[in-house]
Specification:
Layout (H helix, E strand, L loop, with lengths): L10 E3 L2 E2 L4 H10 L6 E7 L3 E6 L2 E6 H6 E2 L1
Antiparallel strand pairs: 1-3, 2-6, 3-4, 4-5
């Protein structure tokens, strides 16, 4: 299942990042989003979702949410 299908408020573990785009991988890594890291969907929005990773909250679009496998 990917992050777009996640339940709000439930903590998940990132299993993998499903993309061939190295820039996208580097961007997610800079946010602290990589395999084994805990991630929580705070809320779903029309254009994406707000996630909590470590001590930060980020607004990510559907393309990023689809690439994060939990």
């Amino acid at each position: 299942m990917n992050l777009r299908d996640a339940v709000e408020g439930k903590e998940y573990v990132v299993r993998q990042i499903d993309t061939e785009d190295e820039d996208l991988n580097a961007f997610l890594f800079s946010l602290g989003c990589y395999s084994g890291e805990h991630i929580t969907v705070v809320s779903h929005l029309k254009g994406g979702c707000i996630v909590s990773i470590k001590d930060g909250r980020y607004n990510i679009d559907h393309q990023l949410a689809d690439a994060i496998i939990i």
